[in-house]
Amino acid sequence: MLALAVCAVLCGARSQYAVSQWGQDCGSEIRAAIGLKRGRGPSGSTVHRIFRRLDHTAFEQVLGQWFAAQGLQADEAIAIDGKTLRGIHGEEVPGVHLVAAFAHQTRTVLAQATTEGKGHELAGVKAVLATLPARLLCGHVVTGDALLAQRELCRQIIAKGGTISLY
What we know:
Elements: H1 2-10, H2 16-25, H3 28-33, H4 44-53, H5 56-69, E1 78-85, E2 96-103, E3 108-115, H6 121-131, H7 134-137, E4 141-144, H8 151-159, E5 163-166
Parallel strand pairs: 1-4, 4-5
Antiparallel strand pairs: 1-2, 2-3
Helix pairs in contact: 1-2, 2-4
């Protein structure tokens, strides 16, 4: 099911309903190739139940490591920055704030962490740097805003073999 969800998102699905619809429309050969035994794709409620029970932190970490294992380009830079996701539930629920390490050319999120908000990005940056293996940063330029201009963070990046470029 998770492989189906990843494929659906890579093909443009942006909601649980869209993942379900993609799984039903993709064809039996694709479902068989990713290991689904059933003859049709999952229902929307099945997709919802799976994502509700999913350990999203572990899943994001494994998926980020898999993307990274596919290879970063030799001259590829990695940006570390925070963003607020808006429009999830209108005005009812405030946006979720994330800090992510993003590979520029392959357009891949290598690691991300949630934070309490804009004023708490530093903790998120530390968490992201802690989860990034040294082999990912080694030889790559890490870009960031003024928040990364702290000795402790710079030392952590350099210790993992990265180079720093602040903007």
